[in-house]
């Protein structure tokens, strides 16, 4: 009976995600900061920051996965509508990005969440978004905690003064030295006074992505990017740690948390 009830709860949660909505909103004095927002306005909020590809289906699925647990979520469109359809374009977009300005815009988004009802705000980012998450955490008084996944730019924050809780996630097979390899994760934990970093065996960069996009298969992604295939066990482990981290530090606990599947229904932008 207990197993049946758990399955029913999981099915209901997945159904809720399938009908969840992330609404486009424009922030800033000139309405030039596009974001997507979803969830109850008075719930604790999490800002979800894209990889270098741009705001894609994977970004939205991660945000909905968090909304599934009762959080209000906000996804900043860092590239303002542009997307990298291949590694060359993504690299170009990231290379042109004004990182300090992006951090400022994320800070504006955090202030918006507080002003419109969220009692606490956390931030999570992936790849390039991980680096921006740490920068925004340091820059914004409105963001309480941060969780970078496989991405650090030590130039965006002062490790000596960043005292807020940080939880980092890195793949043991990640080869991006100085940015997201295991040594960088260990350096992050060593230099910050309030950080816990996890290194995941048998996975590399982008290990939380359930799909190989923009590549057709994980084999093609490995061939062109060198990233190992998706490992559900390691991804589940990371999700569990992330959810526990936010539950602990974002003061108001979301209602009805259960052990839910990480695979959400496909969502289109």
Which features characterize this protein?
single chain, 269 residues, alpha/beta, Rossmann fold, 8 strands, 38% helix, disordered C terminus
Give an account of the 3D structure.
The chain has 269 residues and is of the alpha/beta class. The chain has one domain: Rossmann fold, CATH 3.40.50.1820. The protein is built from 8 helices and 8 strands, in the order αβββαβααβαββαβαα. The chain has an 8-stranded mixed β-sheet with strand order 1-2-4-3-5-6-7-8, with helices on both faces. Helix 4 crosses helix 5. The longest helix has 18 residues. The N terminus and C terminus are likely disordered.
Blueprint (SSEs and pairs):
Layout (H helix, E strand, L loop, with lengths): L1 H17 L4 E5 L5 E6 L6 E5 L7 H11 L4 E5 L10 H10 L2 H17 L5 E6 L1 H12 L5 E5 L16 E6 L10 H10 L3 E6 L17 H8 L6 H18 L20
Helix pairs in contact: 4-5
Strand content: 15-25%
By secondary-structure content and strand pairing, the structural class works out as alpha/beta
What summary fits the major beta sheet?
Answer: 8 strands, mixed
Query: What is the CATH T-level topology?
Result: Rossmann fold
Low-pLDDT residue intervals, each spanning 5 or more residues:
1-19, 257-269
Strand order of the largest sheet: 1-2-4-3-5-6-7-8
What gap, in angstroms, lies between the N and C termini? 38 Å
**What is the typical, i.e. mean, pLDDT?**
88
Shape: globular
Write down the domain tally. 1
Pattern of helices and strands: HEEEHEHHEHEEHEHH
CATH superfamily placement: Alpha/Beta hydrolase fold, catalytic domain
Radius of gyration, whole Å: 17 Å
Which CATH architecture would you pick? 3-Layer(aba) Sandwich
Give the % helix.
25-40%
Quick one: CATH class?
Answer: Alpha Beta
Total DSSP helices: 8
């Amino acid at each position: 009976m207990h197993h049946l009830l758990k399955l029913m709860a999981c099915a209901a949660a997945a159904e809720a995600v399938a009908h969840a909505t992330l609404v486009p909103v424009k922030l800033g004095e000139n309405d030039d900061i596009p974001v997507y927002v979803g969830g109850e306005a008075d719930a604790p909020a999490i800002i979800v920051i894209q990889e270098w590809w741009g705001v894609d289906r994977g970004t939205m699925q991660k945000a909905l996965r968090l909304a599934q647990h009762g959080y209000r979520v906000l996804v900043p469109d860092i590239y303002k509508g542009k997307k990298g359809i291949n590694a060359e374009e993504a690299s170009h977009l990231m290379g042109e990005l004004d990182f300090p300005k992006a951090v400022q815009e994320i800070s504006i988004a955090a202030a918006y969440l507080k002003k419109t009802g969220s009692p606490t705000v956390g931030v999570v980012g992936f790849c390039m978004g991980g680096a921006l998450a740490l920068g925004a955490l340091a820059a914004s008084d409105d963001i309480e905690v941060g969780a970078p996944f496989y991405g650090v730019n030590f130039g965006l924050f002062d490790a000596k003064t960043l005292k807020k809780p940080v939880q980092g996630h890195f793949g043991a097979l990640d080869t991006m030295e100085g940015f997201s390899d295991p040594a960088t994760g260990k350096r992050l934990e060593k230099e910050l006074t309030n950080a816990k970093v996890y290194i995941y065996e048998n996975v590399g960069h982008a290990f939380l992505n359930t799909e190989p996009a923009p590549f057709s298969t994980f084999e093609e992604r490995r061939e062109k990017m060198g990233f190992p295939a998706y490992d559900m066990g390691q991804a589940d482990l990371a999700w569990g740690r992330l959810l526990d981290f936010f539950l602990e530090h974002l003061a108001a606990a979301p209602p009805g948390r259960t052990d839910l599947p990480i695979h959400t229904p496909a969502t289109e932008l």
